[in-house]
Amino acid sequence: GENVEQHPSTLSVQEGDSAVIKCTYSDSASNYFPWYKQELGKGPQLIIDIRSNVGEKKDQRIAVTLNKTAKHFSLHITETQPEDSAVYFCAASKYGGSQGNLIFGKGTKLSVKP
Amino acid sequence: EPEVTQTPSHQVTQMGQEVILRCVPISNHLYFYWYRQILGQKVEFLVSFYNNEISEKSEIFDDQFSVERPDGSNFTLKIRSTKLEDSAMYFCASSRQGAQEKLFFGSGTQLSVL
Q: Which residue of A has its CA nearest to B40?
């Protein structure tokens, strides 16, 4: 089955710097790659997603890139702010039938220091 | 924004006891999920539910687990005879069109089995 690896497990940056989190996946049939942000005491919230027919997607300070050949995708956060501090999870799924369950990475704890 | 609500937020039980975790998905959503997160580990898929039946389940979701949508608003996860290793944060999620669009997660139920 699918396996998603995520690095680093922790990341500390200064406010205003960029942060990059990387994930690799094993199943070449996976075609949907969301990123979730989890704040303390809350459930994961989708912040951006990308499908396999696209190489890059951007939403304000957040961007995701996908390299299907290498089977890896990355989250880029520019101009980080203290409120970006959270745990970030990458995930992968493949379309099968009417649903496809998400396989998550282990998470990256991002700390943005003021 | 609409929310998935989960109750209780914390549940403590003795090993061997039955527990029911409750969720109210977003009202116009059709797909429902349970995920769990053991402390410090990945968010793991348990089961997906659509059209009043299980559509997919993981190896974790054995005979001790069951799900039910008893009415038009609630979605429950039952663990028949809890084990110590069932201790985890359990997240309910829902979506309109399956796991390849935004999943809305609840805040979770922290289950502690003693």
A: A106
